């Protein structure tokens, strides 16, 4: 009903506006120029507007670089990241250079050659030489960019098996991540969504001996300088594993395994100590400090101070809590990594532990609920935050 009333009111307003404009037209002096054809004055004001517009977009561009330049990512923390950044920098630099010149010329010419009663447009059919020049230059430039891009792409995407990369599975589900280390044998056990039951949250095949030493964790640890090969699997919908600091992203597709490999080069500690990150953390904490003053005044709990950590994000809108789908990544020395991995339970032992009490208490169903509960309460917590 309200919608209906609003529509009627809007329609009446439109009619009123139209009637007022008619009255306004009738009240104009009879000798005023009411022609629909543009005269010199119209052309002049449009020419000036064209020039003003290009100046406006240039000013906005410079302002954005000035104001938001600090939101750029820091130096890449992976081996291939440098190549990726160079390709990006060259492509964007070239596009911007051409864009600034051609856009400027387009608007300037619209101003300079604006219509005048006394002038007649020149009929100029074609010029082979000019057309050749403006065709061949983009062809060579674009071909160069594409070939360079293809080489970089294959360099990044080709996984050198000779380097013996450490195999880790990244498992996505609504709305969290799990990582599965392939253990001593560096081979992941087979897995299928049909095996998901109880503590076997990732559906690892219990009958596959390769899976026994796999280790499933909620936090991704990586040894610095060691190549890693990620195998991605999704439980439900399309996700995208996005590692911004390592310049890596791969779709995570239900029903298939996708992969991506990289070598982390900067540890979490080193990144925290970098000038970029020190400044960034300081500015985030300044904002939080200000916010905390308000929160204290309102008698609400305050925000913790921020500390940088690498993270893995989901970069496909996969549902309600997509925005909160992230996993912490810690890049550390090989010794620290080995010590941490040593502490993690293997898949085999997890299954054994879960089976042991189940046999006596006969409660496999309850086990299933226990593993699902944290997910559910997480989802609820996330909704509460919204
Ligand atoms: Cu997702």
From TrEMBL:
Belongs to the cytochrome c oxidase subunit 2 family. Its EC number is 7.1.1.9. It is an enzyme of class 7 (translocase). Keywords: Electron transport, Membrane, Respiratory chain, Translocase, Transmembrane, Transmembrane helix, Transport. It comes from the Bacteria. One of its GO terms (cellular component) is membrane. It holds the Pfam family COX2_TM. This is cytochrome-c oxidase. GO terms for molecular function: copper ion binding; cytochrome-c oxidase activity. Residues 163-343 form the Cytochrome oxidase subunit II copper A binding domain. The keyword Metal-binding does not apply. Residues 343-386 are annotated as: Disordered. It is a multi-pass membrane protein. Residues 65-160 form the Cytochrome oxidase subunit II transmembrane region profile domain. It is found in: Membrane. InterPro entries: CcO_II (IPR045187), CcO_II-like_C (IPR002429), Cupredoxin (IPR008972), Cyt_c_oxidase_su2_TM_dom (IPR011759), Cyt_c_oxidase_su2_TM_sf (IPR036257). The keyword GTP-binding does not apply.
């Amino acid at each position: 009903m309200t919608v209906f009333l609003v529509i009627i009111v809007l329609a009446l307003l439109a009619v009123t506006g139209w009637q007022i404009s008619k009255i306004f037209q009738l009240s104009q002096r009879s000798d005023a120029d009411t022609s629909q054809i543009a005269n010199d004055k119209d052309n002049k004001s449009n020419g000036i507007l064209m020039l003003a517009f290009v100046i406006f977009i240039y000013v906005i561009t410079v302002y954005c670089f000035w104001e938001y330049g600090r939101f750029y990512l820091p130096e890449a923390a992976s081996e291939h990241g440098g190549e990726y950044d160079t390709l990006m920098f060259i492509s964007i630099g070239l596009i911007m250079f051409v864009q600034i010149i051609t856009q400027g010329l387009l608007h300037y010419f619209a101003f300079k050659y604006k219509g005048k009663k006394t002038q007649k447009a020149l009929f100029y059919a074609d010029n082979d030489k000019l057309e050749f020049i403006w065709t061949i230059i983009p062809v060579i430039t674009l071909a160069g960019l594409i070939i360079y891009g293809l080489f970089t792409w294959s360099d990044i995407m080709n996984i050198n098996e000779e380097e013996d990369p450490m195999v880790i599975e990244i498992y996505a589900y609504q709305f969290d991540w799990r990582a599965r280390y392939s253990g001593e044998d560096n081979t992941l056990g087979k897995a299928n969504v049909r095996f998901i039951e109880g503590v076997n949250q990732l559906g690892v095949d219990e009958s596959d001996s390769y899976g026994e030493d796999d280790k499933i964790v909620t936090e991704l640890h990586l040894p610095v300088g060691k190549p890693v090969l990620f195998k991605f699997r999704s439980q439900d919908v399309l996700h995208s594993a996005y590692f911004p600091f390592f310049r890596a992203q791969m779709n995570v597709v239900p029903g298939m395994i996708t992969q991506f490999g990289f070598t982390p080069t900067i540890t979490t500690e080193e990144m925290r100590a970098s000038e970029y990150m020190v400044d960034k953390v300081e500015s985030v904490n300044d904002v939080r400090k200000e916010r905390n003053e308000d929160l204290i005044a309102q008698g609400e709990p305050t925000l913790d101070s921020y500390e940088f950590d690498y993270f893995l994000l989901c970069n496909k809108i996969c549902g309600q809590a997509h925005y909160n789908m992230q996993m912490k990544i810690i890049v550390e020395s090989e010794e620290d990594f080995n010590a941490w991995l040593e502490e993690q339970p293997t898949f085999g032992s997890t299954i054994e532990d879960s089976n042991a009490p189940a046999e006596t208490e006969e409660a496999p169903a309850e086990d299933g609920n226990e593993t699902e509960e944290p997910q559910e309460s997480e989802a609820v917590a996330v909704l509460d935050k919204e």
